[in-house]
Structures are given as C-alpha cells and as structure tokens.
Write a structure and sequence with these properties.
Layout: H1 3-12, E1 33-35, H2 40-45, H3 47-57, E2 61-64, H4 72-82, E3 85-91, H5 94-97, H6 100-110, E4 114-117, H7 128-147, E5 151-155, H8 169-176, E6 182-187, H9 188-193, H10 198-204, E7 211-214, E8 216-217, E9 223-224, H11 233-237, H12 240-243, E10 247-250, H13 258-271
Parallel strand pairs: 1-2, 1-10, 2-3, 3-4, 4-5, 5-6, 6-7, 7-10
Antiparallel strand pairs: 8-9
Helix pairs in contact: 3-4, 4-6, 7-8
Amino acid sequence: MDRREFLTAVAAGAVSACARAPMQGTRRLDRIGVQLYTVRSEMAKGVEATLERVAAIGYREVEFAGYFDRSPEEIRAALAATGLSAPAAHVPFERIESGWSATLDEAARAGHDTVIVAGIPEERRRTLDEVRACAALFNQAGEAAKNAGLRYAYHNHDFEFPRIDGQVPYEVLLAETDPALVAFELDLFWVINGGGDPLAYFASNPGRFQLVHVKDRDATGRMVDVGAGRIDFAGIFARAEQAGIRHYFVEHDEPADPFASIEASYRYLRRLEF
C-alpha cells in the first residue's frame, strides 16, 4: 500500500481487516512503552503500585503526564524499583513561558531525556501568525533543553491539521522549527483523525519523529485498544528508520478498564511483525 492508497483508505474508514493482522516480516518491537495518562486514575491512587503493574504486563518504558505529588527523586526511585525507564514526560504549554528552567531541572532529576509539550492552547493557534509565534517559542524551548542536556518535542492532536489560509498548521510548525532543537512526537490516532498521512510526514521530514503515540482507531473514528482498530501499524513501523522513531508509547485517552486496555495493546504489539 503506497501513501496515497493509505490515506484514501483511512479517510474512508475502509482499511481492510486483513491489514489489522500482524504482517509477516522480520522485525518486532524490542521496547514497548505506555503513556501513563492512560492509567491516570490508577496513578492517582498509587504511583508505585501502578508502575509495578505496568512492568508486570511487560512494558519497559513509560511516559509521564504528571508526578501525582511525588518529587522527581521519588519518581526516579520508583522507576528503579520496577526496572522501568521513563525517557519522556509531558508538560503543559504554559511551562515554556513560566518556569521552563525549573521544568527542565525536574525532568533531569527524574531521569527523563525528553520534555514534551502536549498541545497548544486554542487561543494561541487561531491564526498562522500565532502558529509561527509558537514555532519560535518552541525553538527557544528547544535551545534551553539542549543546553540542559535534554531534548524538546511537541505532541500533536488533530486540531493542527485543518488548513488556515491554505496552510496546514502542523506543517508550519515543522517548517519553522529547527530540527536540531525541536523533535516531534507523532500521535498516530490524532494525525489520521485530522486527515494527515504519517508516511507522508516521515518522507517529507525524515528523522524528526523520535517518539510516537500508538493508539488505534476503528472505522467510525472511535479510539480503541491497539489491534482492535484499523490503523496499519506494521506499515507505519516499517518506516521507523526513516521517521527516526526511538520510542513507542501505547495510549488510550478514555479506556473503560485502564489495565485491561494497556494489557490488550501490549499483547498485540508484542507479536506484531513488520
């Protein structure tokens, strides 16, 4: 399936069922991670117990979305106790403009190497000039992160893809940020939901997508556990080298049963060949 066929199939919600089965290939994921936002209700009850259950499922990496009243040192200790690593953490957009140095310091103390802004507030992305201003801000954040020995990245939703004055905001962000300073975490559900094509972005911006959020989408556009939908993960992961992907984080925004969801997604990805 080439890029044009892929995008047409996704837009029509008609990716064939056979594309959902693990393809016969020679590679499998050697490290599977999970965005802890998926289990945030459990994290609120107990960080350490939640990390233990995540590790017991088989995950080896996690991505934080808040520390739930734990210090960076306590987070680092909890990770060490479970054998997990946490290469990245999400922080609010507002942290860039207020407390960025402290945020980078906390990330380093917790053991992260990438700090990710999880989205742009609506009032900061209504025009192309506003989007360009965000790109300039991201360059500044990325330079500060680099000086601190870290990386900065931006995570998309679907609101970056509808055109403004004929241009796609996500493409403006890619074009106006310095690849040496700003990486991108591509959320595969949201890019497709917004009408974008992951493979096209990999081809036009090689090496910039160091992290991906692995979440699935059924024919109606509903978010489902990985493997229960129609996104061709094997086809996407086969282009990991071109994309620059280093980390794969499972996520489901509103799972009925958080642990059952991440376990089902892990089982699917563990056997996926590409």
